[in-house]
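User: Please fill in residues for this 249-position structure.
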């Protein structure tokens, strides 16, 4: 049904929604859910680097699966590391195929065929998101990411937020979520630690360009790095997702 990579490898995983469930019209999109590097690619880095935030949004896959199980919603999860190609970047954006990330050099990306990686991974991933949305009536999107509390390249920078809410022009869901999450006692960043006016490529493409309401959430990775943390975050996010979906979709 969806476009696949040339060698048959799927750069995405799809979790189907449960049609009668409360969250059946919600689709979670997880651009950085995996640290997998396809066999044909050698990034030139050590295995320890693939366990860091530069390679994967820690905790995102676990929270996504917990939300899908609880709400009956669907999801599209990346099956390729952001170090291979960043799905949350436009095709011509700097950093699409990073040569350095938070001070770590990626020598295997110094001279690559960008068009080949776009064709094998980036375009099939976004085709899967688009096709999945097409199959959902009145969809609402959750864009789920996590962030490190401290960047190695900017050690003095403070990143104390428990969660951040990101958006570009469409801030409807963001305003609902910020109010609700503040009520839980979480320290909530509005357009922090990043701004959705700058880093919002996937939601610009699948949300704003199509008029589909969405919520962008960044979770602090140390809060969701184990099963207990993922389950706690799921219980906090689930009512927010339902409220946003019910009001906007």
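Assistant: Residues filled in for all 249 positions:
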């Amino acid at each position: 049904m969806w476009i696949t990579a040339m060698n048959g490898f799927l750069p995405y995983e799809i979790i189907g929604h449960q049609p009668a469930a409360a969250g059946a019209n919600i689709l979670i999109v997880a651009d950085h859910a995996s640290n997998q590097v396809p066999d044909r690619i050698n990034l030139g880095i050590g295995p320890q680097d693939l366990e860091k935030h530069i390679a994967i949004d820690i905790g995102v896959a676990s929270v996504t699966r917990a939300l899908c199980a609880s709400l009956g919603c669907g999801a599209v999860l990346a099956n390729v590391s952001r170090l291979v190609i960043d799905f949350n970047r436009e095709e011509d954006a700097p950093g699409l195929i990073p040569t350095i990330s938070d001070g770590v050099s990626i020598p295997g990306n110094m001279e690559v065929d960008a068009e080949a990686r776009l064709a094998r991974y980036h375009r099939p991933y976004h085709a899967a998101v688009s096709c999945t949305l097409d199959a959902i009536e009145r969809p609402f999107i959750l864009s789920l990411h996590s962030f490190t509390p401290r960047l190695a390249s900017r050690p003095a920078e403070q990143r104390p937020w428990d969660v951040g809410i990101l958006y570009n022009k469409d801030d409807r869901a963001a305003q609902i979520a910020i109010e609700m999450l503040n009520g839980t006692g979480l320290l909530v960043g509005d357009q922090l630690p990043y701004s959705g006016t700058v880093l919002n490529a996937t939601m610009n493409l699948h949300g704003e360009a199509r008029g589909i309401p969405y919520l962008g959430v960044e979770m602090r990775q140390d809060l969701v790095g184990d099963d207990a943390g993922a389950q706690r975050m799921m219980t906090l996010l689930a009512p927010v997702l339902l409220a946003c979906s019910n009001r906007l979709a």
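For context: Residues 145 and 227 are 16 Å apart (CA to CA).
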